[in-house]
Amino acid sequence: MSESDAGAQRPPAPATYAASGVDIAAGDEAVRRIKVAVASTSRPEVLGGIGGFGGAFSFDPTRYENPVLVSSTDGVGTKASVAHAAARYDTIGIDLVAMCVDDIVCVGAEPLFLLDYVVTGKLVPEQMEALVSGVAEGCRQAGCALLGGEMAEHAGSMGPGAFDLAGFAVGAVDRASMLGPERVVAGDALVALFSPGLRSNGYTLARHVLLERAGLSLDDPAYEGAGHSLADELLRPSVIYAPAVLTAAKVAEVHAAAHVTGGGLLQNLTRVLPPDCDAVVDRSGIEVPPIFSEVQRLGDVDPSEMERVFNLGIGMMLVVEPGSVPEAIAALESAGCLAAQAGRVTEGSGRAHLGDR
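The chain above was modelled as a monomer; its predicted structure follows.
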């Protein structure tokens, strides 16, 4: 037998999980790194810490006459692609929390806890630490506990550094205090909660226009005269509205809330209208942040398409009893959320539209 024949018959090295692309040791190191961040979100109801098979939360039903649990799940969409391209991972977790807790507060629920799920092509402990630290910061802002989560390494199906981030939140509300279409009546006022940026919606169109069609770099100015980069603008964390909305609901007659996510303001506002009412939106007092004008200009995007895809400066809309508007706005702003009256509810057929239509 020749030397080459002997080499050809030599058995392959034993297969291992690490050699196939999954590094258990890196996962253990990532968990070690995030323990302090997770612990910083704890509430008195949290039992134990991370590392178990399930997160435990000692829910106290005596706080409510008739408690209702409310849940929502969401992700950060293709904003994750911007974070990957910019190699900046410390804020996008805030967006995840905002997308989840700002949905459940539309039912009037206080966020209690959140669980997250991170999937990546190659698990890098430093990247996971930054991502989860952002989620923890969002939970601290929302007042909820980061109760647990999962980090998954999908070697071969995602490139190194690429990731996706998703999660779900659970909250509680007394049934008598639930917000929704059933409480909305003609004559109610609309109160807009301002958004300084894109939040986590419309990024596929924004990326296409700014990065592909216009060929801008993430290091370029966000727009003419901007003192910050396009990466800074696109990675601006979403405002978390839940605490401000709950504060307003304690002092004002808030009837409903619409979180402005995919579909834009009008489509989401329609979701909180009864079939015999319309919402007439007045945008005259709402300043549209410059990034939206830049997307529209560079992409020659039709105004109706902009309205359908982006929030255009309004991240949430409350439906408020008209006599409570001053109290609602004062409460929102005391909680750090700029707001203004932006329309009214009229008799109609369950539609939301701009006032000039």
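Residues 124 and 342 are 46 Å apart (CA to CA).
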